Amino acid sequence: MRPLSLSLAPLALAAALAAPAPAMAQDAPAAAAPATAPQGEPKLIVAISVDQFSADLFAQYREHFTKGFTRLLQGAVFPSGFQSHAATETCPGHSTLLTGVHPARTGITANSWYQPGIARAEKEVYCVEDETNPKSTPDNPVVSPAHLKAPTLGDLMKKRNPKTINAAVSAKDRAAVMMSGHDTDAVYWIGAKGFTTFENRRISKAVEAQNAVMAKRVAAGDGALPVPGWCGNVDRATPIRDFTIGTYRFPQAAGDFKSYANGPRIDTATAEMAVRMVDELGMGKDAVPDVLSVSFSATDKVGHAFGTEGVEMCIQMNVLDEALATLFDGLDARGIDYEGVLSADHGGFDAPERQKLRGNPDATRIDPALSAEMLASAVSQDTGVTVKKGPLFYGAGEAGSVWFSSELTAEQKHKVMTALVARLKANPQIAAVYTQDQIMQWPEPKGHPQDWTMEQKVRASFVPGRSGEVQMLTVRGVVPGEAKPFKVASHGSPWDYDRRVPMLFWRKGMTGFEQPTPVETVDIAPTLAATVGLTAPAGTWDGRCLDIDAGEADSCRR
Ligand SMILES: [Zn+2]
Asked: Which of 109, 515, 518, 533 is the 20 to 30 A CA-CA neighbour of 376?
């Protein structure tokens, strides 16, 4: 593994240098060994999200994980977890992880939405933005959890006992905010130069120290990242227009913070920051359990920039495995009895150009005619309706959701909507089109997520008044976005490659098992709540408690 910074506590170094962890379940006598279970409540919940870590990536790489992932693989492994809803983006996905409810109830229906009626020039609103603050813009937001309508596990635990510490760190503001919620002790994400926090809070000494370490690394630059031997034949160039993907090794130009923050190295920094937060906040020390949320963003950044099936993702998987070891070894060195869970906000899909070469001829890029601009001009011609300011409608294309101009009269809106729906239905890339009136007649979905209909998936991430009034869903294999260097793939579809993510639970002393039956990410909050003895009124969660005790005992009934 990469050496830890010397300014981290010496304990962490000792752990990094120590012999491998004592033998776990796999070395125990196989015959008639009773399942063991840890005693009492964990002192710390470590909730990890790996952005864009699809069940497909997990399946492809799990045999190669030898570092931090190892202990998670010895726990309760649910390889088929579902972000059940249609809006498979970062903010909605992270909003389900610790609230236990679908985006229809978290209120987080997308990374950003449009409010054509608001006074400011930008009609787009970012999911963790306080758009009522005049200083805020979607690109440079004043960050706030206000749009999140459900309490997180940390919120509920703090309500039960204010001594609970609820903290989060990620490279992305929306990931850290969605996992920690409203009542938080420390929330950090990467800003222009290093970790930062809410406008009305100060960055701590630990953040200053971590930022100094990162600034030094950025100033010095770095060579290519190592390619693990097991990457094998993914290290091959695939042409995309006039450039290629598949062979990049993340050389780090001296002084280039942006590329540092958008590559694998930021996961290492996130793990280091998490360990510093444990020390600074004194997490996992007393009898009152704490929650530390850690969202690793680099897998998503690498997936967008290079797709999921090249050497870039293989390198990233190795760095992630190391970053998890930095985090877990740091906790072990401090003797903290923690319960770890790892999942993801959404899955992902490879660049269609490479899919076509590898047995998936149906993969393709979205038709430019489905962009808001082109659709609006076509619909304007169809109907003769125009507006004075701005477009007829916003969104469409990559957003999959359409918001109508506030200038339209009811009659005009009806006309425009009818024409738009007809145009969308005629496009072969569109699998389904629904209007708000249709969607709101459907009940909130229940039952096994792999069997959900398109309607159920859409309903699970729909909020009237926030979601666009028309929802457009593309057919399987359509990748949103044009191909550009460092931007070749995306997610956000209602298809299982974007919905399916692993869910792994681990605690020292537990007997592991594999459960292939599909589960949901909304099951995570009630599952963890049971292990810390937190009960909540019926209806609090959309998900259910998963019994992660392999034996006769039931972790949901304590
Ligand atoms: Zn993404």
From this structure: 109
Q: Is 466 exposed, middle or buried (0-12, 13-18, 19+ CB in 10 A)?
A: buried
Residue 136 forms part of a structural domain: no
Q: What is the pLDDT of residue 24?
A: 47
Helix, strand or coil for residue 61? helix
For the stretch 424-457, pLDDT in tens is: 999 999 999 999 999 999 999 999 999 999 999 9
Tokens 């910074």: give the residue: 5
Angle between helices 311-333 and 265-281 (to 10 degrees): 20
Query: What's the total number of domains in the chain?
Result: 2
CATH of the domain at 339: 3.40.720.10
C-alpha distances in Å from residue 500, one per residue of 74, 76, 156, 343, 345: 21, 17, 27, 10, 9
Question: What is the number of H-type helices and E-type strands within the chain?
Answer: 19, 20
| 144 and 129 Cβ atoms separated by less than 8 Å | yes
Distance 53 CA to ligand 1 centre (A): 10
How far does residue 345's CA lie from ligand 1's centre (Å)? 9
CA of 71 to the centre of ligand 1 (A): 27
pTM, 2 dp: 0.93
Please give the Cα distance from 240 to 220 (Å, whole number).
Answer: 32
Using pLDDT thresholds of 50, 70 and 90, give the confidence band for residue 549: very high
- Contact between 72 and 340 (Cβ < 8 Å): yes
Active site residues: 90
Q: Find tokens 């919905």 and name the residue.
A: 499
DSSP state of 19: P
* Relative orientation angle of helices 90-97 and 173-180, to the nearest 10 degrees: 20
Element (H, E) at 437: helix 436-439
The 10 Å Cβ neighbour count of residue 251 is 13
Q: What's the pLDDT tens digit per position in 257-294?
A: 999 999 999 999 999 999 999 999 999 999 999 999 99
Q: Is residue 235 part of a domain?
A: yes
- Residue 408: domain span: 367-428+430-474
Q: Are 492 and 480 within 8 A, CB to CB? A: yes
Q: What is the DSSP letter of 120?
A: S
From the CA of 301, how far away is ligand 1's center (Å)?
7
Q: Tens digit of pLDDT for each residue in 144-166?
A: 999 999 999 999 999 999 999 99
Of 459, 528, 537, 544, the residue nearest 98 (C-alpha): 528
Which class for 236: exposed (0-12), middle (13-18), buried (19 or more C-beta within 10 A)?
A: middle
The pLDDT tens digits for 288-324 are 999 999 999 999 999 999 999 999 999 999 999 999 9
Residue type at position 60:
Q
The tokens of 163 are what? 């001594």
- 126 CA from centroid of ligand 1 (Å): 15
Task: Judge if 160 and 221 occupy the same domain.
Answer: yes
DSSP letters spanning 213-251 = HHHHHHHH-B-PPP--GGGGGG---EEETTEEES-----
